[in-house]
Amino acid sequence: MKNQITTPAAGHDARSSILQVVVWCFSVPILASWTLISLLPAISVLRAWGDFLDVMIAVGFFASGACGLIAAAVAYRWLLAGRSTSAASGQDRTFRIVGLTAYALVWMAIYAIW
Questions:
Q1: Helix or strand or coil: residue 19?
Q2: CA nearest 66: which of 36, 45, 96?
Q3: What secondary structure does DSSP assign to 86-98, as a single string?
Q4: Do 41 and 59 touch, CB atoms closer than 8 A?
């Protein structure tokens, strides 16, 4: 058998594919850590019970964390249940994951300061 070099699909750049793999390999561990860390505000609510401002800050962190974002995404999909949606391209999904990773890094930094 010969070693065959496969060429990318029409209209698809090999360099773009490598960049997407690198971005996803960098983003997935960050988002997995953020998902676990975003559960900590639930414990902060219990610890701060009785102090209204601290409880509201902890609830705000919980709602803006991964759990709140997942809930918002599910609610958005329910709203669009009867409509047809188009699938995003690989580059669009990569761009979204970069934005979500940046949001997660900023969220974790602010939560660490608080």
A1: helix
A2: 36
A3: PPPPHHHHHHHHH
A4: yes
Q: If you count them, how many residues does the chain have? A: 114
Task: Decide if 114 contacts 43 (C-beta within 8 A).
Answer: no
In this structure, what is the dihedral angle of CA atoms 47, 49, 52, 54, given to the nearest 10 degrees? 0
pTM of the entire predicted model: 0.74
The dihedral sign for the CA sequence 17, 21, 26, 27? positive
Between CA 94 and CA 24 the distance in angstroms is: 7
pLDDT in tens, 7-40: 455 555 666 788 889 999 999 999 999 999 999 8
List the structure tokens of 35.
């998902």
